[in-house]
Design goal:
It is a single chain. The protein is built from eleven helices and no strands. The two termini are 48 Å apart. By secondary structure, it is mostly helical. 87% of the residues lie in helices and 0% in strands. The model is unreliable at 333-339 (pLDDT under 50). α10 packs antiparallel against α11.
């Protein structure tokens, strides 16, 4: 138990020899250190899962995930250990604002991969829908490239058939007119086949010849255009078969699927935000603990230690400056004045 306590002290970034002198603060820093440790652990797990969806390799994901977790752990440790309690809450809060903003950013980065894992089943279902939509969009794009040519050929075939039908209708009208002239039911109303009948019969025969010629020409054109339509359809089917369904399983696709799910379902939207807020609370907890807690014995000892170091530094500088003045006094007059002026400059800079 003692080893675990010291491990969490180490995680919190405290000066352990000082903390051992004030057991009152030990529990607080055990809690802060444990929070920092588990935040780094969550970060490693989240990064490992996110990288696994990219590389499909457990070992690569674990290696890079561990590095990311250690980086977050070290960053959190520095954020907490760099805060000092001075008894001025307003000033301390202003000083802590950048650290809080950084902690919120880190929590958002950590939370996203874990959200993807928690809602994995729902995301897989949405990915299937997205794959189908992507496939349909690509298929429609391919069909669109062939649609204009196919529509043009279809209209040309219809125009050729209409021309044949119009010519056949005209031929039928002429044949009927000649027949009516022959049996006396139309035209001159005379049953004897006279010159008028011969003219109408000749016109009907000419129309028949023109129709046959048109049929020969248009049937060939229709056949050619029909073959082109068949070739277009064959090429279209081949491209659709070669298209295949795109497998969506990357981080970007999963995040898009989660975003779509949150827009479709209020329950998932709330769950998603609760997850984000939970990680924000966990990540910012050490900072707020330092802010809301008063100055403890450890803070007082740390201040004394830092003040002692600063006093020793100033004393050492003063001793060095005194030695330099004594040394300058033993130099020749010209050189002594130059050294003394440089020494005064250094003293002003140190002050």
């Amino acid at each position: 138990m003692e080893k675990l306590k010291r491990f969490f002290w180490l995680c919190s970034g405290v000066h352990i020899p000082l903390l051992t002198k004030c057991e009152v603060d030990s529990s607080r820093y055990v809690g802060i250190g444990a929070t920092i440790f588990f935040t780094g652990l969550f970060a490693a797990i989240a990064a490992s899962y996110a990288l696994y969806t990219v590389f499909d390799s457990v070992w690569i994901a674990m290696a890079f995930g561990s590095v990311w977790g250690l980086m977050i752990f070290n960053l959190d440790r520095y954020i907490v250990s760099s805060m000092r309690k001075e008894g001025n809450t307003g000033r301390e809060f202003r000083m802590a604002l950048p650290r809080i903003a950084l902690a919120v950013l880190i929590s958002l980065v950590i939370a996203k991969p874990l959200e993807l894992k928690i809602f994995e089943k729902e995301i897989k279902g949405e990915l299937v829908i997205m794959e189908q939509q992507t496939y349909t969009a690509q298929e429609n794009e391919i069909r669109g490239r062939f649609a204009n040519d196919r529509e043009t050929l279809t209209q040309e075939i219809a125009s050729l058939k209409t021309e044949i039908a119009s010519k056949a209708e005209k031929r039928d009208a002429m044949v009927k007119a000649a027949q009516d002239e022959a049996d006396g039911t139309g035209g001159t109303k005379q049953r004897n086949a006279g010159p008028i009948y011969k003219i109408k019969k000749a016109n009907a025969d000419q129309a028949e010849l023109e129709l046959q010629a048109l049929l020969t020409k248009n049937d060939q054109l229709i056949h050619d255009k029909t073959r082109r339509i068949v070739a277009l359809d064959s090429t279209l089917r081949a491209e659709i078969v070669a298209l295949g369904k795109q497998k969506l399983d990357g981080p970007a696709a999963r995040m898009e699927a989660l975003d779509r799910l949150t827009k479709q379902s209020d329950a998932i939207w709330w769950a998603n935000w609760f997850m984000v807020l939970l990680f924000i609370a966990v990540e910012t907890a050490p900072v707020f603990v330092k802010l809301i807690s008063g100055q403890g014995p450890y803070d007082q000892l740390l201040k004394v230690e830092e003040h002692t170091f600063e006093a020793n530094r100033i004393e050492a500088l003063a001793r060095i400056n005194a030695e330099m003045k004594d040394r300058a006094a033993n130099l020749p007059k010209t050189e002594s004045g130059y050294v003394t002026s440089r020494l005064d400059v250094r003293l002003n800079e140190s002050a």
